[in-house]
Specification:
By secondary structure, the chain is an alpha/beta fold. It has a single domain, classed as Glycosidases (TIM Barrel, Alpha-Beta Barrel). Helix content is 39%, strand content 15%. It has 16 helices and 19 strands. Strand 16, helix 15 and strand 17 form a beta-alpha-beta unit. It starts with 7 loop residues before the first strand and ends in a 7-residue tail after the last helix. Belongs to the glycosyl hydrolase 1 family.
Length: 486
Protein backbone atom coordinates (compact mmCIF):
# COMPACT_ATOMS: atom_id res chain seq x y z
CA UNK A 1 0.00 0.00 0.00
CA UNK A 2 1.05 3.58 -0.62
CA UNK A 3 -0.44 7.04 -0.30
CA UNK A 4 -3.74 7.34 -2.14
CA UNK A 5 -3.85 8.96 -5.56
CA UNK A 6 -5.77 11.93 -4.16
CA UNK A 7 -3.58 12.38 -1.08
CA UNK A 8 -3.39 16.01 0.05
CA UNK A 9 0.24 17.13 0.32
CA UNK A 10 0.74 20.70 1.47
CA UNK A 11 1.55 23.11 4.25
CA UNK A 12 -0.13 24.95 7.13
CA UNK A 13 -0.21 28.58 8.28
CA UNK A 14 -1.99 30.65 10.93
CA UNK A 15 -3.21 34.18 10.21
CA UNK A 16 -1.73 35.68 13.38
CA UNK A 17 1.69 34.23 12.56
CA UNK A 18 1.88 35.19 8.88
CA UNK A 19 -0.55 37.91 7.78
CA UNK A 20 0.60 41.10 9.49
CA UNK A 21 -1.49 44.17 8.49
CA UNK A 22 -2.80 44.00 12.02
CA UNK A 23 -5.10 47.04 11.76
CA UNK A 24 -5.42 47.34 8.00
CA UNK A 25 -8.73 47.43 6.12
CA UNK A 26 -10.82 47.52 9.27
CA UNK A 27 -9.24 44.65 11.19
CA UNK A 28 -9.60 44.84 14.97
CA UNK A 29 -7.11 43.74 17.59
CA UNK A 30 -6.88 40.05 18.45
CA UNK A 31 -5.28 38.36 21.47
CA UNK A 32 -1.98 37.60 19.62
CA UNK A 33 -1.67 41.32 18.78
CA UNK A 34 -1.13 41.96 22.51
CA UNK A 35 1.86 39.60 22.74
CA UNK A 36 5.32 41.12 22.52
CA UNK A 37 8.14 39.29 20.80
CA UNK A 38 10.80 37.19 22.41
CA UNK A 39 14.27 36.30 21.28
CA UNK A 40 16.97 33.77 22.11
CA UNK A 41 17.40 35.24 25.62
CA UNK A 42 14.04 36.90 26.37
CA UNK A 43 10.71 35.10 26.91
CA UNK A 44 7.52 36.26 25.24
CA UNK A 45 5.49 38.80 27.25
CA UNK A 46 1.93 40.16 27.41
CA UNK A 47 0.51 43.60 28.07
CA UNK A 48 -3.18 44.58 27.83
CA UNK A 49 -2.41 47.74 25.87
CA UNK A 50 -0.16 48.42 22.90
CA UNK A 51 3.14 49.96 24.02
CA UNK A 52 5.02 52.38 21.81
CA UNK A 53 8.44 51.45 20.41
CA UNK A 54 8.07 47.77 21.30
CA UNK A 55 8.21 44.85 18.89
CA UNK A 56 4.99 42.92 18.32
CA UNK A 57 5.66 40.02 15.91
CA UNK A 58 2.07 39.62 14.71
CA UNK A 59 1.69 43.27 13.71
CA UNK A 60 3.72 42.75 10.54
CA UNK A 61 4.62 39.03 10.75
CA UNK A 62 5.84 38.07 7.25
CA UNK A 63 3.23 40.31 5.57
CA UNK A 64 1.34 37.46 3.90
CA UNK A 65 -1.51 39.99 3.65
CA UNK A 66 0.35 41.71 0.83
CA UNK A 67 2.54 38.81 -0.36
CA UNK A 68 -0.15 36.11 -0.56
CA UNK A 69 -0.12 35.88 -4.37
CA UNK A 70 3.64 35.46 -4.41
CA UNK A 71 3.55 32.91 -1.56
CA UNK A 72 0.73 30.82 -3.00
CA UNK A 73 2.58 30.76 -6.33
CA UNK A 74 5.63 29.38 -4.49
CA UNK A 75 3.44 26.75 -2.79
CA UNK A 76 2.08 25.82 -6.21
CA UNK A 77 5.63 25.53 -7.53
CA UNK A 78 6.25 22.92 -4.83
CA UNK A 79 3.13 21.12 -6.02
CA UNK A 80 0.84 21.72 -3.04
CA UNK A 81 -2.52 19.98 -3.18
CA UNK A 82 -3.77 21.60 0.04
CA UNK A 83 -3.03 24.76 2.00
CA UNK A 84 -4.18 24.98 5.58
CA UNK A 85 -4.68 28.56 6.72
CA UNK A 86 -6.85 30.39 9.21
CA UNK A 87 -9.31 33.22 8.93
CA UNK A 88 -8.54 35.98 11.40
CA UNK A 89 -11.80 36.41 13.32
CA UNK A 90 -11.08 40.09 14.05
CA UNK A 91 -10.66 40.75 10.33
CA UNK A 92 -14.29 39.66 9.84
CA UNK A 93 -15.82 40.96 13.10
CA UNK A 94 -13.28 43.49 14.45
CA UNK A 95 -14.71 43.47 17.97
CA UNK A 96 -16.35 40.07 17.93
CA UNK A 97 -19.73 41.48 18.88
CA UNK A 98 -20.22 43.68 15.79
CA UNK A 99 -23.64 43.57 14.17
CA UNK A 100 -22.30 43.35 10.63
CA UNK A 101 -19.13 41.78 9.24
CA UNK A 102 -16.28 43.78 7.76
CA UNK A 103 -16.57 43.49 3.98
CA UNK A 104 -12.90 44.29 3.37
CA UNK A 105 -11.92 41.32 5.53
CA UNK A 106 -14.33 38.98 3.75
CA UNK A 107 -13.02 40.18 0.39
CA UNK A 108 -9.42 39.46 1.38
CA UNK A 109 -10.15 35.78 2.01
CA UNK A 110 -12.21 35.61 -1.18
CA UNK A 111 -9.07 36.68 -3.00
CA UNK A 112 -6.87 34.22 -1.11
CA UNK A 113 -9.17 31.27 -1.85
CA UNK A 114 -9.45 32.33 -5.49
CA UNK A 115 -5.67 32.35 -5.72
CA UNK A 116 -5.55 28.85 -4.25
CA UNK A 117 -8.12 27.58 -6.73
CA UNK A 118 -6.12 29.14 -9.57
CA UNK A 119 -3.44 26.52 -8.83
CA UNK A 120 -5.85 23.69 -7.85
CA UNK A 121 -4.83 23.99 -4.21
CA UNK A 122 -7.59 22.90 -1.82
CA UNK A 123 -8.00 25.31 1.12
CA UNK A 124 -8.28 23.77 4.60
CA UNK A 125 -9.61 26.59 6.75
CA UNK A 126 -9.29 26.93 10.51
CA UNK A 127 -11.97 29.26 11.85
CA UNK A 128 -10.18 30.01 15.12
CA UNK A 129 -6.42 29.55 15.34
CA UNK A 130 -6.02 31.50 18.62
CA UNK A 131 -7.17 34.68 16.81
CA UNK A 132 -9.96 35.62 19.23
CA UNK A 133 -10.85 39.33 19.07
CA UNK A 134 -9.25 41.25 21.94
CA UNK A 135 -12.58 42.89 22.78
CA UNK A 136 -14.03 39.45 23.55
CA UNK A 137 -11.20 38.85 26.02
CA UNK A 138 -11.67 42.23 27.71
CA UNK A 139 -15.44 42.54 27.70
CA UNK A 140 -16.64 38.93 27.93
CA UNK A 141 -13.77 36.99 29.59
CA UNK A 142 -13.27 35.09 26.36
CA UNK A 143 -15.10 31.80 26.04
CA UNK A 144 -15.96 31.81 29.73
CA UNK A 145 -19.01 33.80 28.68
CA UNK A 146 -21.87 31.93 27.05
CA UNK A 147 -22.37 35.03 24.89
CA UNK A 148 -19.13 34.21 23.11
CA UNK A 149 -20.70 30.97 21.84
CA UNK A 150 -23.26 33.01 19.91
CA UNK A 151 -20.60 35.37 18.58
CA UNK A 152 -18.50 32.47 17.34
CA UNK A 153 -21.45 30.74 15.67
CA UNK A 154 -22.39 34.00 13.96
CA UNK A 155 -18.81 34.36 12.74
CA UNK A 156 -18.63 30.73 11.57
CA UNK A 157 -21.99 31.03 9.81
CA UNK A 158 -20.82 34.18 8.01
CA UNK A 159 -17.73 32.34 6.75
CA UNK A 160 -19.62 29.18 5.78
CA UNK A 161 -22.16 31.17 3.77
CA UNK A 162 -19.59 33.42 2.11
CA UNK A 163 -17.16 30.67 1.10
CA UNK A 164 -19.50 27.70 0.70
CA UNK A 165 -18.50 27.29 -2.95
CA UNK A 166 -14.78 27.89 -2.37
CA UNK A 167 -13.94 25.89 0.76
CA UNK A 168 -14.92 22.31 1.49
CA UNK A 169 -12.58 21.42 4.39
CA UNK A 170 -12.90 23.25 7.72
CA UNK A 171 -11.50 23.09 11.26
CA UNK A 172 -13.47 24.71 14.06
CA UNK A 173 -10.73 25.38 16.67
CA UNK A 174 -6.98 24.91 16.52
CA UNK A 175 -5.48 22.63 19.20
CA UNK A 176 -8.60 22.92 21.32
CA UNK A 177 -7.08 20.63 23.96
CA UNK A 178 -4.52 23.33 24.84
CA UNK A 179 -7.15 24.65 27.27
CA UNK A 180 -6.66 21.56 29.46
CA UNK A 181 -3.37 23.21 30.55
CA UNK A 182 -2.85 26.38 32.57
CA UNK A 183 -1.00 28.09 29.69
CA UNK A 184 -3.97 27.52 27.43
CA UNK A 185 -6.18 30.00 29.26
CA UNK A 186 -5.01 33.14 27.49
CA UNK A 187 -4.26 31.73 24.04
CA UNK A 188 -6.90 29.07 23.53
CA UNK A 189 -9.98 30.47 25.29
CA UNK A 190 -8.92 34.16 25.73
CA UNK A 191 -9.46 34.02 29.48
CA UNK A 192 -7.54 36.60 31.53
CA UNK A 193 -7.84 37.52 35.19
CA UNK A 194 -8.95 41.02 36.15
CA UNK A 195 -5.48 41.60 37.58
CA UNK A 196 -3.83 40.71 34.27
CA UNK A 197 -6.22 42.90 32.29
CA UNK A 198 -5.27 45.86 34.49
CA UNK A 199 -1.52 45.50 34.09
CA UNK A 200 0.40 48.52 32.84
CA UNK A 201 3.71 46.75 32.19
CA UNK A 202 4.46 43.53 30.29
CA UNK A 203 4.59 40.26 32.19
CA UNK A 204 5.93 36.86 31.24
CA UNK A 205 3.34 34.49 29.83
CA UNK A 206 3.88 32.01 32.66
CA UNK A 207 3.06 34.77 35.17
CA UNK A 208 -0.53 35.08 33.95
CA UNK A 209 -3.08 33.96 36.53
CA UNK A 210 -4.96 30.71 35.94
CA UNK A 211 -8.39 29.69 37.20
CA UNK A 212 -8.96 25.99 36.34
CA UNK A 213 -12.69 26.16 37.09
CA UNK A 214 -13.24 29.02 34.66
CA UNK A 215 -10.81 27.54 32.14
CA UNK A 216 -12.68 24.22 31.87
CA UNK A 217 -16.01 26.05 31.67
CA UNK A 218 -14.57 28.11 28.82
CA UNK A 219 -13.34 24.94 27.10
CA UNK A 220 -16.81 23.44 27.47
CA UNK A 221 -18.28 26.53 25.80
CA UNK A 222 -15.83 26.02 22.93
CA UNK A 223 -17.03 22.43 22.58
CA UNK A 224 -20.62 23.68 22.37
CA UNK A 225 -19.65 26.43 19.91
CA UNK A 226 -17.83 23.90 17.74
CA UNK A 227 -20.81 21.50 17.71
CA UNK A 228 -23.25 24.27 16.81
CA UNK A 229 -20.92 25.41 14.02
CA UNK A 230 -20.67 21.85 12.65
CA UNK A 231 -24.47 21.60 12.56
CA UNK A 232 -24.81 25.00 10.88
CA UNK A 233 -22.08 24.19 8.37
CA UNK A 234 -23.79 20.98 7.30
CA UNK A 235 -27.05 22.87 6.84
CA UNK A 236 -25.34 25.39 4.56
CA UNK A 237 -23.42 22.79 2.52
CA UNK A 238 -23.95 19.10 3.11
CA UNK A 239 -20.62 18.39 1.40
CA UNK A 240 -18.57 20.26 3.98
CA UNK A 241 -15.98 18.17 5.82
CA UNK A 242 -15.54 19.74 9.25
CA UNK A 243 -12.95 18.52 11.71
CA UNK A 244 -11.61 18.94 15.20
CA UNK A 245 -7.91 19.75 15.67
CA UNK A 246 -5.91 18.29 18.54
CA UNK A 247 -2.37 19.07 19.62
CA UNK A 248 -1.28 15.46 19.95
CA UNK A 249 1.72 15.02 22.22
CA UNK A 250 2.58 11.35 22.37
CA UNK A 251 3.42 10.30 25.92
CA UNK A 252 5.47 7.30 27.00
CA UNK A 253 6.05 6.04 30.55
CA UNK A 254 9.61 6.93 31.56
CA UNK A 255 10.15 3.49 33.08
CA UNK A 256 8.23 0.22 33.43
CA UNK A 257 7.38 1.24 37.00
CA UNK A 258 3.59 0.72 37.14
CA UNK A 259 3.24 4.17 38.73
CA UNK A 260 4.89 5.73 35.66
CA UNK A 261 2.57 3.74 33.42
CA UNK A 262 -0.56 4.86 35.29
CA UNK A 263 0.65 8.48 35.32
CA UNK A 264 1.31 8.28 31.57
CA UNK A 265 -2.11 6.81 30.89
CA UNK A 266 -3.74 9.65 32.83
CA UNK A 267 -1.70 12.31 31.06
CA UNK A 268 -2.49 10.86 27.64
CA UNK A 269 -6.19 10.55 28.42
CA UNK A 270 -6.66 14.09 29.68
CA UNK A 271 -4.39 15.92 27.25
CA UNK A 272 -4.95 13.94 24.03
CA UNK A 273 -8.12 11.86 24.31
CA UNK A 274 -10.59 13.99 26.25
CA UNK A 275 -11.13 16.77 23.71
CA UNK A 276 -11.09 14.38 20.76
CA UNK A 277 -13.70 12.16 22.39
CA UNK A 278 -16.05 15.10 23.00
CA UNK A 279 -15.87 16.29 19.40
CA UNK A 280 -15.79 12.89 17.69
CA UNK A 281 -18.12 10.90 19.95
CA UNK A 282 -20.26 13.80 21.13
CA UNK A 283 -19.97 13.14 24.83
CA UNK A 284 -17.64 13.57 27.78
CA UNK A 285 -15.61 10.42 28.54
CA UNK A 286 -16.02 9.01 32.03
CA UNK A 287 -12.36 9.43 33.00
CA UNK A 288 -12.59 13.22 32.85
CA UNK A 289 -15.10 13.32 35.70
CA UNK A 290 -12.64 11.55 37.97
CA UNK A 291 -10.07 14.21 37.05
CA UNK A 292 -12.58 16.99 37.74
CA UNK A 293 -13.28 15.57 41.19
CA UNK A 294 -9.57 15.26 41.97
CA UNK A 295 -8.98 18.88 40.93
CA UNK A 296 -12.05 20.26 42.69
CA UNK A 297 -13.72 21.34 39.45
CA UNK A 298 -17.51 21.61 39.62
CA UNK A 299 -18.84 20.26 36.31
CA UNK A 300 -22.47 21.28 36.71
CA UNK A 301 -21.91 23.57 33.71
CA UNK A 302 -22.48 20.50 31.47
CA UNK A 303 -26.23 20.83 30.97
CA UNK A 304 -28.63 18.35 29.37
CA UNK A 305 -29.19 20.79 26.50
CA UNK A 306 -25.45 21.05 25.93
CA UNK A 307 -25.14 17.26 25.90
CA UNK A 308 -27.74 17.15 23.13
CA UNK A 309 -25.84 19.80 21.13
CA UNK A 310 -22.55 17.93 21.48
CA UNK A 311 -24.16 14.70 20.28
CA UNK A 312 -25.67 16.38 17.24
CA UNK A 313 -22.54 18.30 16.24
CA UNK A 314 -19.85 15.65 15.91
CA UNK A 315 -17.04 16.18 13.41
CA UNK A 316 -16.42 14.51 10.05
CA UNK A 317 -12.65 14.09 10.37
CA UNK A 318 -9.91 14.11 12.97
CA UNK A 319 -7.01 16.48 12.39
CA UNK A 320 -4.00 16.89 14.64
CA UNK A 321 -0.52 18.29 15.08
CA UNK A 322 2.49 16.10 15.77
CA UNK A 323 5.97 17.43 16.47
CA UNK A 324 7.53 15.28 19.15
CA UNK A 325 6.93 12.88 22.04
CA UNK A 326 7.57 13.19 25.76
CA UNK A 327 7.94 10.83 28.70
CA UNK A 328 6.00 10.84 31.97
CA UNK A 329 7.57 10.03 35.33
CA UNK A 330 6.43 10.19 38.94
CA UNK A 331 10.05 10.93 39.89
CA UNK A 332 10.48 14.71 40.16
CA UNK A 333 14.25 14.41 39.76
CA UNK A 334 14.40 12.97 36.23
CA UNK A 335 15.88 15.23 33.50
CA UNK A 336 13.30 17.17 31.47
CA UNK A 337 13.00 18.61 27.97
CA UNK A 338 10.92 21.31 26.28
CA UNK A 339 8.13 20.69 23.80
CA UNK A 340 5.15 22.02 21.86
CA UNK A 341 2.84 23.49 24.52
CA UNK A 342 4.22 21.04 27.10
CA UNK A 343 7.55 19.44 27.90
CA UNK A 344 8.18 16.25 29.79
CA UNK A 345 10.75 13.77 31.04
CA UNK A 346 13.68 13.29 28.70
CA UNK A 347 13.73 10.19 26.51
CA UNK A 348 17.35 8.93 26.37
CA UNK A 349 16.72 7.19 23.04
CA UNK A 350 15.84 10.38 21.12
CA UNK A 351 17.71 13.34 19.68
CA UNK A 352 16.45 16.90 20.18
CA UNK A 353 16.05 20.01 18.03
CA UNK A 354 17.76 23.37 18.65
CA UNK A 355 14.81 24.22 20.91
CA UNK A 356 14.97 20.99 22.89
CA UNK A 357 12.03 19.21 21.26
CA UNK A 358 12.56 15.46 20.98
CA UNK A 359 12.57 14.04 17.45
CA UNK A 360 10.49 10.87 17.25
CA UNK A 361 9.21 9.76 13.81
CA UNK A 362 8.35 6.28 15.16
CA UNK A 363 6.00 8.04 17.56
CA UNK A 364 4.04 9.33 14.59
CA UNK A 365 3.38 5.82 13.32
CA UNK A 366 2.38 4.78 16.83
CA UNK A 367 0.06 7.80 17.13
CA UNK A 368 -1.61 7.24 13.77
CA UNK A 369 -2.37 3.64 14.67
CA UNK A 370 -3.67 4.65 18.07
CA UNK A 371 -6.02 7.24 16.55
CA UNK A 372 -7.21 4.86 13.84
CA UNK A 373 -8.11 2.37 16.55
CA UNK A 374 -9.85 4.94 18.73
CA UNK A 375 -11.82 6.59 15.89
CA UNK A 376 -12.01 3.89 13.19
CA UNK A 377 -14.77 5.56 11.19
CA UNK A 378 -13.01 8.89 10.61
CA UNK A 379 -10.35 9.94 8.09
CA UNK A 380 -7.21 11.43 9.65
CA UNK A 381 -5.22 14.51 8.68
CA UNK A 382 -1.80 15.50 9.98
CA UNK A 383 -2.19 19.27 9.75
CA UNK A 384 0.99 20.32 11.57
CA UNK A 385 4.39 18.64 11.60
CA UNK A 386 7.61 20.57 11.35
CA UNK A 387 11.11 21.38 12.48
CA UNK A 388 12.14 24.71 13.98
CA UNK A 389 15.83 25.42 13.39
CA UNK A 390 18.50 28.12 13.07
CA UNK A 391 18.96 28.53 9.35
CA UNK A 392 22.07 30.12 7.87
CA UNK A 393 22.13 32.07 4.61
CA UNK A 394 25.39 31.34 2.81
CA UNK A 395 27.39 33.98 0.94
CA UNK A 396 25.90 32.83 -2.34
CA UNK A 397 22.38 33.08 -0.90
CA UNK A 398 21.84 29.34 -0.55
CA UNK A 399 20.27 27.79 2.55
CA UNK A 400 21.38 24.21 3.09
CA UNK A 401 18.83 22.81 5.56
CA UNK A 402 19.62 19.10 5.35
CA UNK A 403 18.52 18.73 8.99
CA UNK A 404 14.99 19.73 7.97
CA UNK A 405 14.99 17.29 5.06
CA UNK A 406 16.15 14.52 7.41
CA UNK A 407 13.33 15.33 9.87
CA UNK A 408 10.61 15.26 7.23
CA UNK A 409 11.99 12.19 5.45
CA UNK A 410 11.77 10.06 8.58
CA UNK A 411 8.30 11.32 9.49
CA UNK A 412 6.96 10.67 5.99
CA UNK A 413 8.43 7.15 6.16
CA UNK A 414 6.51 6.66 9.41
CA UNK A 415 3.33 7.93 7.75
CA UNK A 416 3.80 5.48 4.89
CA UNK A 417 4.27 2.62 7.35
CA UNK A 418 1.06 3.65 9.11
CA UNK A 419 -0.80 3.66 5.79
CA UNK A 420 0.53 0.15 5.20
CA UNK A 421 -0.82 -0.71 8.66
CA UNK A 422 -4.26 0.28 7.36
CA UNK A 423 -4.57 3.84 8.71
CA UNK A 424 -6.97 6.07 6.73
CA UNK A 425 -4.65 9.07 6.38
CA UNK A 426 -5.80 11.56 3.74
CA UNK A 427 -3.65 14.68 4.21
CA UNK A 428 -0.29 15.99 5.40
CA UNK A 429 0.26 19.74 5.74
CA UNK A 430 3.65 20.66 7.16
CA UNK A 431 4.17 23.47 9.64
CA UNK A 432 4.92 25.97 8.29
CA UNK A 433 5.90 25.86 4.63
CA UNK A 434 7.30 29.38 4.84
CA UNK A 435 9.09 31.03 7.77
CA UNK A 436 6.57 32.60 10.15
CA UNK A 437 6.40 33.95 13.70
CA UNK A 438 6.74 31.21 16.32
CA UNK A 439 3.59 31.13 18.46
CA UNK A 440 5.41 29.88 21.53
CA UNK A 441 8.45 32.16 21.54
CA UNK A 442 7.42 35.03 19.26
CA UNK A 443 10.65 34.51 17.36
CA UNK A 444 11.38 34.78 13.68
CA UNK A 445 14.83 33.35 14.42
CA UNK A 446 13.15 29.97 14.93
CA UNK A 447 12.53 29.01 11.32
CA UNK A 448 10.27 26.24 10.02
CA UNK A 449 9.82 26.93 6.33
CA UNK A 450 10.89 25.53 3.01
CA UNK A 451 10.94 29.23 2.07
CA UNK A 452 13.16 31.72 3.90
CA UNK A 453 11.75 35.16 4.73
CA UNK A 454 14.10 38.09 5.35
CA UNK A 455 12.49 39.22 8.60
CA UNK A 456 14.17 39.27 12.02
CA UNK A 457 13.47 39.61 15.74
CA UNK A 458 14.72 43.21 15.85
CA UNK A 459 12.09 44.21 13.29
CA UNK A 460 14.53 44.46 10.39
CA UNK A 461 14.36 42.75 7.02
CA UNK A 462 12.87 43.44 3.61
CA UNK A 463 10.38 40.52 3.60
CA UNK A 464 12.00 38.99 0.52
CA UNK A 465 11.51 35.26 -0.03
CA UNK A 466 14.20 32.67 -0.82
CA UNK A 467 13.88 28.95 -1.55
CA UNK A 468 15.83 26.59 0.73
CA UNK A 469 17.22 23.19 -0.24
CA UNK A 470 14.21 21.59 1.44
CA UNK A 471 11.91 23.42 -1.00
CA UNK A 472 13.16 21.30 -3.90
CA UNK A 473 13.23 18.12 -1.82
CA UNK A 474 9.57 18.52 -0.78
CA UNK A 475 8.64 19.29 -4.40
CA UNK A 476 10.12 15.93 -5.39
CA UNK A 477 8.24 14.17 -2.59
CA UNK A 478 4.95 15.63 -3.77
CA UNK A 479 5.70 14.96 -7.45
CA UNK A 480 6.21 11.25 -6.64
CA UNK A 481 3.32 11.06 -4.11
CA UNK A 482 5.74 10.25 -1.33
CA UNK A 483 7.67 7.54 -3.16
CA UNK A 484 11.00 9.37 -3.68
CA UNK A 485 12.33 10.47 -0.29
CA UNK A 486 16.05 10.46 -1.15
Amino acid sequence: MSFSKGFFWGGALAANQCEGAYQEDGKGLSVPDMLLGGDANTPRTFCPQILEDRFYPSHNAIDFYHFYKNDIALFAKMGFKMLRLSINWSRIFPNGDDKEPNEAGLKFYDDVFDECKKYDIEPLVTLCHYEIPWNIAKKYQGFYSRETIDMYVKYATTCFERYKNKVKYWITFNEINFATTSDGAYQSVALFSEEDLNRTEPCKIDELKDNPQKRFEALHNQFVASALAVKKGHEINANFMIGCMICHITWYPYTCNPKDIIACQKKDSIFNDFSGDVQVRGEYPEFIFSYFREEGINYSFITDEDKKILKEGTVDMYTFSYYMSNCVSVDPNVPTVAGNLEGGAENPYLKTSDWGWQIDPDGLRYTLNKLAGRYPHLPLMIVENGFGAKDKVEEDGAIHDQYRIDYFREHIKAMKEAVEDGVNLIAYTTWGPIDIVSAGTGQLYKRYGFIYVDRHDDGTGDFSRKEKDSFYWYKKVIDTNGEDLA
